[in-house]
Amino acid sequence: MANPWFDTVAVAQRRAEKFLPTTVYQQLVAGTDRGQTNADNKSAFAELGIKPVTAGQAAERDLSTTVMGQPMSMPVICSPTGVLAVHPDGEVAVARAAAARGVAIGLSSFGSKPIEEVVAANPQTFFQIYWSGSRESMTARMQRAKDAGAVGLIVTLDWSFFHGRDWGLPDLPQDMKIRSLIAHIPEAITHPRWLLQWAKTGGPPPITVPNAVPPGEPIPEFFEAYGTWAGTPPPSWDDIAWLREEWGGAFMVKGITRVDEAKRAVDIGATALSVSNHGGNNLDGTPATIRLLPGIARAVGDQIEVVMDGGIRRGTDVIKALALGARAVMIGRAYLWGLAANGQAGVENVLDILRSGIDAGLLGLGKSSIAELSPTDLIIPDGFER
């Protein structure tokens, strides 16, 4: 058997592409429309240079930080993502990996594992919620998360329900009925290791979402819950303020790309905001989040914790984000590729790659702590910011 360990996130991605059925893999890499935002999220980091020093580096370097009251060994959070068909252990494997490496995890309302199981695997779990359904339903779902031990709430706002892809949207089964699954049989058979992995657990990957409803209600299938979300009128900032008050604890607004809305997040008393374009899956043409981060950090970074997500593949990407004002970053595709490549150990592998890269970046820049990073450590081309 080949060595399951990998040295870069790019290798994890290649292994995931080989291991996963095409439909599943395409869902992980897809971006809205032509994929312009998805591509810019990654390529923008390459436009930023780093100014290393050659002597006087610190012998020890501190990578630790605190986000939403949670101390973490390094500034990386596993972002909430939807149903994890890449591995039977899903979010529980991710939670265990994150706990083993001392970082927090966000659990999606559209996740495949119940919040109770995920919090048991990692007490540093933030529950992610969409503005979906009635206020009473949202209150009940938040109470379930509190009762389970979630330590913060993430409200995701960056989604426009548009599904166009220039390369074609993968055809996902709408439910677990035979008629829906039969078209995907050839694809599964040509990926026997993936199929065997799921066969050992008793069947194909579930597409139910146990966290999208209050306790005691029938668990909906993914597209049923998605329909409820899509059919709910979008929230106002007054609605988000109500959500924050109803939660009553650490609260992050995810999906900020504008300074004026960053200020609104401050006004409602949010603990944190994430500069995010939903990984390139919201409105195509939105600039890369790393381009938007500096202006938002300058405007509100002294009033609210600023994190960012989108395009993080290396420890030096994290270094650049921190230097431009982020307190931490959130990763999604990177750990999903690790999960596909090698389960829990693969997620740990990805986190170790990022940790090593962050540490190497601090060493090269002569810093003893991530808190010392600033824009002066980077070479920022004219016109980089948006």
The biggest beta sheet reads: 8 strands, parallel
State the end-to-end CA separation.
47 Å
Cα-atom radius of gyration: 20 Å
| Number of helical elements | 15
- Helices and strands, in order, run as HHHEEEEHEHEHEHHHHHEHEHEHEHE
Spatial strand sequence of the major β-sheet: 4-11-10-9-8-7-6-5
Provide the β-strand percentage band.
Answer: 5-15%
* Poorly predicted sequence stretches spanning 5 or more consecutive residues: none
Question: Which word captures the global form?
Answer: globular
Number of strands: 12
State the helical fraction.
Answer: 40-55%
Average pLDDT figure? 91
Which structural class fits the helix and strand makeup?
alpha/beta
3D architecture notes:
With 386 residues, this protein is of the alpha/beta class. It contains 15 helices and twelve strands. It has helices at 9-19, 22-29, 36-46, 90-100, 115-121, 135-148, 178-181, 185-189, 192-199, 222-231, 237-247, 259-267, 289-300, 315-323, 333-365; strands spanning 49-50, 65-67, 70-72, 76-78, 105-107, 125-129, 152-156, 251-256, 272-275, 305-309, 328-331, 378-379. An eight-stranded parallel β-sheet has the order 4-11-10-9-8-7-6-5. Helix 1 (9-19) packs antiparallel against helix 15 (333-365) and helix 4 (90-100) runs parallel beside helix 15.
